[in-house]
Amino acid sequence: MNALTLQWHDAGQNRTQTIYEQQPSKNPRTVRIGRDPLQCDIVITHPTVSGLHVEIFFHTQQQRFYMRNLRSPNPPLIDGKQLVQGEMPLNEGSIIYLGQMKLQVTTVAINSIPATILTPPQPQQPQVNVGHQHHYKSPPTQPKGIYGLQCPKCRKVSPAENLQIGCPWCGTSLAAAVSVLSTPNN
């Protein structure tokens, strides 16, 4: 799972937030940062930060996290370079200034946890004895499935790697989700 961790100091407290490639957010496939809690996924209270300042997203073809400026009169500064328009890649150790607020990228993990698909154990084939030879009878074909987590709210099944980021459909935490076997018919 691709993830980026930000760290900053706001309202007298040290804060840390990990951003995942496909986490639920107020704007699909991006995480928005600013002062406005109605528009932003990460809210920073400092008055020099714009209501909707920047967004971070994962570029699947480039396999990197990028930051995009959403407020041209108040552009962010990334590693000493002003981002007026377009996007700029983020690296581990990158220093970001939103107004006078300093944020640091503490970790960038690209494909750090490989996707795992668990398959149920296959039943043993029953033996049919004919004389002294052993012939195996094939079991009836069943659709193959994968284990997943069923959202306690919307009941949709998502891969187990979504445990830390929540349900991709409704955003509910999957901490209390039930493990289920999902078949193509589910």
Can you characterise this structure?
This protein is an all-beta fold and 186 residues long. 0% of the residues lie in helices and 40% in strands. It has no helices and 16 strands. The protein has strands spanning 3-10, 13-20, 31-34, 42-43, 54-59, 64-69, 77-78, 81-82, 87-89, 95-98, 101-109, 127-130, 133-136, 146-150, 157-158, 178-182. It is elongated.
Quick structural summary:
The protein contains no helices and 16 strands.
N-to-C CA distance: 24 Å
Largest sheet: 6 strands, antiparallel
Q: Uncertain spans, ≥5 residues at pLDDT below 50?
A: 112-116, 138-143
The tally of helices reads: 0
Radius of gyration: 23 Å
β-sheet strand percentage: 35-45%
Helix-strand category: mainly beta
List keywords for this structure.
mainly beta, 186 residues, single chain, 5-stranded mixed sheet, 16 strands, 6-stranded antiparallel sheet, elongated
Indicate the topology.
Elements: E1 3-10, E2 13-20, E3 31-34, E4 42-43, E5 54-59, E6 64-69, E7 77-78, E8 81-82, E9 87-89, E10 95-98, E11 101-109, E12 127-130, E13 133-136, E14 146-150, E15 157-158, E16 178-182
Parallel strand pairs: 3-4
Antiparallel strand pairs: 1-2, 1-11, 3-5, 5-6, 6-9, 7-8, 7-10, 10-11, 12-13, 14-15, 14-16
